[in-house]
Model the fold of this input.
Amino acid sequence: MSNKLVLIDSQIFIWGVKGQATEGQEGQIPIAKAFISWLSENDYKLLLPVPQLVELLSYVPVEQQDTIMQFFTKKFRIVPFDELAASKCAELIYKSLNEPELVQYRKEQKVTKNKLKFDCMLAAIAIVRNASKIYSVDSDLKRFANGEIEVLPMPVIKKPMVQNSLFTGQAIGSTES
Done:
């Protein structure tokens, strides 16, 4: 059986669950919604690390946070940033701060140390919780995961078209007569 535990980055959550986008990104909302639906329909389990949960809840008015938290608890596998994840995170941060290619990348892309730490926390949690992959629109996350987990862009899911028969008007493959 294949591993169907995946992590999706916060931006995909915001587009796909909250249905919110900044100007110019509105087209990502239906793509993210279709992708999250596809994951659910195909029995994937979504990992939601506590640091990411904090980030997501910070966009929600305080009076709505309990309701959103209940939704997350029902739909996602919420996992802590524990000692095992901390150890892996420290390893990823060390490599990101010391490997010449990653040092150069951080400098060129102007990646802050705080962003580096957060990305490494998410990657570390996914790695130690044995997620099969991370889906992200953030190229920094892929760099800082340092090849230890597959980091893929959000795919565009094409919904199968239902074609009606020219003769009966019913969907092809339909069992109705």
Remarks:
- The first strand starts at residue 5 and ends at 8.
